[in-house]
C-alpha cells in the first residue's frame, strides 16, 4: 500500500515542527538563555548533547515498539513530551531545570524525529515506504529555514521563554492532531511478522547469508556514524569554518545559507529519480557521500566566495540525500522486517557522534584552523563512502 499525498504532507509538517522545536532550538536560544540564567552558553549545549545521548539510548526500544504496534501512539506521545520539555525549558531557573527540560526534549526526540517517523511508515507501507520517506524529508528540510528565523523573531519580539512556550503550543495544536489523524492506529495496520534484525525480509527474499547481513549492518553503522559526525559538525560550525578560512562575515553567512536550499533541491531530485527511474538507493548513497569531499576540495583549491558557495552547495546536496539514505538503505538491504528496531540500533552510533561533533570540531578548528577541519570532515566522509562499498545488496551473488 502506498502513502497518500495528504499523509506525506501532514507528517512532513509535523516533522518540521518537531525538528524546529528541538534540534534546531539550541543554536538560537543558547546565548539569551545563558545570559539570563548567568551561566556559560557551553552548558546549554552540554544539556543539548545529553538529550542526544538519551535519544540514542532509547532508539532501539522505540523502534521495537513501533515494529509491534505501529507509530500512532509513539508519535502522538512525542508531541506531548516535546511540549512538556519546552514548557519546562521556558520555566527553567537554573542548571538543574535546564538539564531536566532537555532530558524531556531528548525523550520526545527519540519518540518523534525521523527514525520513529520512518519506522511508522515502514510498519504501515512495507517496502513501498521509500517514496513517503523521501517526501517527508523533502518537507522536513525546511525545518532550519523556518525554525531558526522564526525562533529568532520570537526572541526579539518577546524573550527566549516565550519562544519555548510558542513551540510547545505548536506541538500540541499542530503536530499532535496531524499524527493522530494521519498515522493509523495499531488496529488498522495490516499484520507483519517481526523477528531478529537482519532476518529474512517479509517479501520472502533472502539478502545473502547471515555473515553478509552482519557485514552490511556493520557497514551501515560506520556509514551512519561517520556521516552523522560531519553533518553535526557542519550544522554547528559551517559559518565559523568559512570565517577561519579567511572569508568576510557576510560571505561566510551567505554561503552557509545555501545549505538549506541545496538539501531540499537534492531531495527533490532524488524523489523524482527514484520515482521515474527506480534508482538503486545504494548507488544514490554513494553519490551523496562523495559530495562533501568534493566541496572541501573546491574550498581549498578555489577559495573565496566561489569556493565557499561550492562547498556549501555540495555539502548541502550530499547531506540532503544522506538523510534519505539513512532511512531507505536499511529497508533496501533488509526489508521491512524489524525495521524500527534496526533503525534504533543504527541510530545509537549516529547520535553518539552527532553529540560529540560540535565540541570536538570546535577544538579542531581552534588548534588546526580551516585546513584541518576540512581534512577531518573529508576523511570521515571517505570512511563512510568506503563502508558503502563494503555493502553487497541482494541483487549481487555472495562472494566466495
Please outline what is shown here.
The chain has 400 residues and is mostly helical. The chain has helices spanning 5-20, 26-37, 41-69, 72-90, 95-112, 114-125, 130-140, 143-157, 160-182, 210-244, 249-256, 259-277, 281-301, 304-334, 339-390. It has two domains: 5-185, MFS general substrate transporter like domains (Growth Hormone, Chain: A), CATH 1.20.1250; 210-390, Growth Hormone, Chain: A (Up-down Bundle), CATH 1.20.1250.20.
Describe the structure.
The protein is mainly α and 400 residues long. The chain folds into two domains: 5-185, Growth Hormone, Chain: A (Up-down Bundle); 210-390, Growth Hormone, Chain: A. It is 80% helix and 0% strand. It has 15 helices and no strands. It has helices at residues 5-20, 26-37, 41-69, 72-90, 95-112, 114-125, 130-140, 143-157, 160-182, 210-244, 249-256, 259-277, 281-301, 304-334, 339-390. The chain is globular, with a radius of gyration of 20 Å.
Describe the structure using short key phrases.
400 residues, mainly alpha, 15 helices, Growth Hormone, Chain: A, globular, 0% strand, disordered C terminus, 80% helix
Task: Report the end-to-end length measured between terminal Cα atoms.
Answer: 37 Å
Summarize the main sheet: none
Helical fraction equals: over 70%
Q: In CATH, what is the class of the largest domain?
A: Mainly Alpha
Q: How many structural domains in the coordinates?
A: 2
User: Which ranges are low-confidence, i.e. pLDDT below 50, for 5 or more consecutive residues?
Assistant: 193-208, 395-400
Shape: globular
CATH architecture of the largest domain: Up-down Bundle
Radius of gyration: 20 Å
Number of strands: 0
> What structural class do you assign from the helix and strand content?
mainly alpha
Strand fraction band?
under 5%
Average predicted local confidence, pLDDT? 88
Number of helices, counting only DSSP H or I runs of 4 residues or more: 15
Q: Could you say what the CATH topology of the largest domain is called?
A: Growth Hormone, Chain: A
CATH superfamily of the largest domain: MFS general substrate transporter like domains
Order of helices and strands: HHHHHHHHHHHHHHH
